[in-house]
Specification:
The protein is of the alpha+beta class. Helix content is 28%, strand content 30%.
Length: 144
């Protein structure tokens, strides 16, 4: 697998948003780079919401830093889960809702941050299981 950081740098410009998914020949190691992703930071009551513009992913926190942290770690977990379930990240590569795109255009440069990340995901047999159990049983409590 070519060095993912080098591959991402080849595609990177200051304005271009991109994503790159590389897989080792063994199929067990996946690397994902995302760069120049715009994330709107929106107040919501006493919380903050971090909404991706070029990717439809959202997280919230009780502060701007909390929302950013939850966005970063949640996106990494979503990438990992998509690779485990589908073998790729294509399902994540969809723009945010129309109202988010409008907000980003109207307030360009005010309440959004640019985010990039590089992650590695081990898909060897011992890490392949998506859930640490076989199934989920939902129990409904009857109203009193």
């Amino acid at each position: 697998m070519e060095d993912l950081a080098v591959m991402a740098k080849k595609h990177n410009t200051e304005e271009e948003t991109g994503a790159l998914h590389a897989v080792a020949e063994s199929g067990e190691l996946h690397a994902v780079a995302i760069w120049n992703l715009h994330v709107l930071l929106i107040p919501s009551g006493s919380n903050w919401v971090a909404q991706g513009v070029e990717i439809d992913y959202v997280a919230q926190g009780d502060s701007i830093e909390g929302a950013k942290h939850n966005f970063e770690h949640g996106l990494e977990s979503s990438i990992d889960l998509n690779i485990r379930m589908y073998g790729n990240i294509e399902g994540l590569l969809t723009f945010g809702p129309d109202e988010v795109l409008r907000e980003a255009v109207l307030h360009r440069g005010t309440q959004y941050k640019v985010y990039s990340q590089l992650t590695a995901h081990d898909m060897s047999e011992r890490y392949r299981q998506v859930l640490p159990f076989n199934n989920v049983v939902f129990l409904k409590k009857d109203a009193a």
